[in-house]
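Quick one, tokens below. Sequence please?
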């Protein structure tokens, strides 16, 4: 098999495409022939040694992928060789094969394409857990989505609309705002040109949003939290801007608001039954056409360096997917 190897975590420039021995699955493991893998922001952090998980060297990055089961280890019952699956394994996705724990592998329903499946579990799992579980989103509530044209942002827009909410999408360009309206946002804010707090106030009749979905962090966090509605829920998804904000806690007191952490990977590990229920609902919405990953770039697996360059230049709307020949 071939894979992108990280043996010096100083950034994507140190990755090398190498031929390595094809591993055999042990008990409770599955080997998947990878058809497609998606690029997520944590994939960049992990090869820069900036992620909370620091795997032993060398390792193959790539947390999310889809493909066909080639072999299963002892005790694996829910999938068999030949099955189409998606996996969120944390590592191993940027290659031609990967061995992952069977618990991280989900059988794909008929009609689920490999590129869509590779772009699905992490972003839609995160956004569903955030909005439906952590925020307890109700029909008719208003959700403000920051970084709305990215992978988790586009998923959040679609899930909030499927749940009956009103969505205000905030993004960094007019082009990205247009994409958000195309996939269902009721209103948009270009926060690179406008006055963010004034626009939030105008679009919510002065009440503020009920839920804020924030994968950006940085200097957007405080003005947005100052704008949140009474009993608002501020969802901490990540820090794509790079800096981790510090919020004055008196604002939470004055607004009766909650700052809510969202860590889908840990939720899936600790509460697998609830995660399975969420994924079942998401698969139903996908089959009904209510949600579908936005994939702007589809590159060959060997083009991973170009994919990282696009992500670093903030030129990815939705998700970026890498594919292997069938």
């Amino acid at each position: 098999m071939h894979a992108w190897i990280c043996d010096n975590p100083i950034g994507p420039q140190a990755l090398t495409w190498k031929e390595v021995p094809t591993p055999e699955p042990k008990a409770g493991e599955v080997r998947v022939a990878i058809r497609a893998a998606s690029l997520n922001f944590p994939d960049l952090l992990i090869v820069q040694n900036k992620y909370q998980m620091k795997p032993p060297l060398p390792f193959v990055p790539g947390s999310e992928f889809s493909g066909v089961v080639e072999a299963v280890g002892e005790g694996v019952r829910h999938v068999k060789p030949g099955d189409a699956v998606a996996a969120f394994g944390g590592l191993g996705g940027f290659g031609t094969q990967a061995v992952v724990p069977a618990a991280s592998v989900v059988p794909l329903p008929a009609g689920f394409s490999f590129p869509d499946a590779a772009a699905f579990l992490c972003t839609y799992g995160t956004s569903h857990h955030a909005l439906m579980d952590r925020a307890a989103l109700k029909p008719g509530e208003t959700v403000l989505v920051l970084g709305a044209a990215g992978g988790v942002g586009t998923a959040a827009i679609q899930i909030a609309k499927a749940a009956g909410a009103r969505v205000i999408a905030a993004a960094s360009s007019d082009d990205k705002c247009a994409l958000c309206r195309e996939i269902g946002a009721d209103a948009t804010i270009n926060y690179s040109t406008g006055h963010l707090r004034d626009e939030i106030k105008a679009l919510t009749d002065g009440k503020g949003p009920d839920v804020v979905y924030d994968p950006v962090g940085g200097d957007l966090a405080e003005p947005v939290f100052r704008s949140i509605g009474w009993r608002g829920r501020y969802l901490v998804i990540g820090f794509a801007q790079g800096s981790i904000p510090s919020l004055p806690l008196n604002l939470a007191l004055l607004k009766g608001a909650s700052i809510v952490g969202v860590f889908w990977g840990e939720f899936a590990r600790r509460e697998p039954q609830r995660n399975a229920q969420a994924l079942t609902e998401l698969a139903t919405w996908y089959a009904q056409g209510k949600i579908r990953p936005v994939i702007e770039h589809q590159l060959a697996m060997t083009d991973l360096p170009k994919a990282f360059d696009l992500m670093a230049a903030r030129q990815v709307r939705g998700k970026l997917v890498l594919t292997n020949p069938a």
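The CA atoms of residues 129 and 264 lie 7 Å apart. The chain has two domains: 2-120+293-323, 123-264.
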